[in-house]
Amino acid sequence: MQTKTNLPSPTGYAGIVTKPPEWHTLVVFDILFNNLTTGLFLGAAVGELAAPSTFTPVATWAYPVALALLLADFACLVLDLGDSLRFHHMLRVFKPSSPMSLGTWSLTVYSLLLTAIVAVEFVAAAGWVPGNSAAAWWIRTLAVVVGLPFAFGSAAYKGVLFSTTAQPGWKDARWLGAYLVNTAVTLGAAELLVIAALTGEPLAVDTLRLAVGLLIVLNLVALALLVGDLYPLLSRLYARREFGVAGLFVLLTGVVIPASSLLAGGVPVTASVAVASLILASLGVRFAIVRLPHDAT
Amino acid sequence: MASRELEVVHSPQVETPPSRGPLSAFLDRLIGPFHRGEAPEHKPAMGFYTDTTVCIGCKACEVACKQWNQLPADGFAWTGNSYDNTGELSATSWRHVKFVEQFADNQPPEPTGNGRVSLHVLPDQPHDVRWLMMSDVCKHCVAAPCQQACPTGAIIHNEFANVYIQPDICNGCGYCVAACPFGVITRSTLSGHAHKCTLCYDRQKDGLVPACAKACPTASIQFGPIDELRERARRRVEELHRRGVPGARMYGSAPTETYTELHSFYLLVDRPEVYGLPEAPFNPWLHMLGDYFRTAIAGAVTLAVPLAAFLLWGA
Predict the structure, then answer these.
(1) What is the pTM of this model?
(2) Are the beta carbons of A50 and B106 separated by less than 8 Å?
């Protein structure tokens, strides 16, 4: 028998029965700030531990910036809740089966360690303890080392959170977590490059220019894998022209402009253009990802 | 209230909480959610069996649900879809009667210029048309994606093995909404918290039948121990097959490769999609470990790039 077609689907009730959550612009910026803070920390920590003489001066500035970005991320996270005054309920349980719970705990530990690092730096800068105090140095180094897996966890959970849902697009995005963690590291390295250029660390700038260049190429691979996952839905939702324009935008802002800026030199202006362009590309991709279930239903 | 007085012989005394200062109230709000009560003893799993073949679309279940749970009205909206003006399950509609009109000639009547269907085009013969009705509700999944998603522990399986949202714990993150493959849970625009059918947990604790099942005049909605309901449903399907309804089938009474059984299952006479149910629901958590693995590998490879650059050229 044929079903009457007053409803969106010719088979009867809506073909897609899931409801998209009320996640909009704040979530887009939450993902972005999450990537910016965790990526910057990861880049600074890895640099400092691998080549301390080159990267410690850069990392010293990077951690406070990472903390400011983390606070912006927290603001987005809290404001996006239906009942923001209950944000602390997230810490009622530790539930590894829920990527959001795992992410919350990762972010909490990461934030505590990052705050400790910045506090030690602040205390040293204020002259309350000697800057080269062995105890302060060891506390800071310990926090950096212990913070690494938690920063990584904080960057990694977000994509899995989205892909572990029943929403069209998100549920098929097997490489979303990989793409987001890859972008976090890319953005972090680019931010570090700006800081290195501003603080006048030529060896750090040259090394980071190379690293960011390689990461941009790797990011393109991760994006291609993600688009491969989403292509069936994307091709249904958007016309070929829209798809082409979006692709061109991402290619320009995510590859061409930052790569050209890196080739142009390692001064603060070119580094800033590179990071701004990468942020723009990241925002575009994140908007598209967050919109997917809304457009599909 | 009159029916409640008839049903509950010993109504519990309502205690007025002592008045508190603002600091005490603030501390309660801060620390209260971390207090754990003693878990109640497990009871036999209870659930719903909805036989859509006897549903007459009276919506008594919707009304009873709203009345008992004190859910606000949704206003008067004309959907134009048969007699369904509720539209969908929501934070304020925990029961939703669906109406599906079907025509044998594969050609539903064409609307006229004003978008309406003339009455004279409706079929004369009863077998030309079929009107399917189904009272939809939360499926109370055995492995519920909403419960797996919930980061606050607000969504639990209670002692009757029903999926229950603790309204004082939920903070409205919305992850359960995204996780539900049936589109059941909704975040309220009033409270900001997620809401759905509680399977009348309060009534069950007092030994009462959920309001919708009690109100259903045709026993389309049946409530009871889940094993008994499954057996009853199996016999009903056999009976319908004998009586010439070959399309009769169960939905959600048994687990599939991608989803567990439902504690609210259905007897349907057409494909699940016709009723707005996913044909093969998929638990998103089946992908989780693989997604973490891919993310971890990609992250490690990505981090190796700057690490190599720092070690080779930065030192």
Answers:
(1) 0.90
(2) no
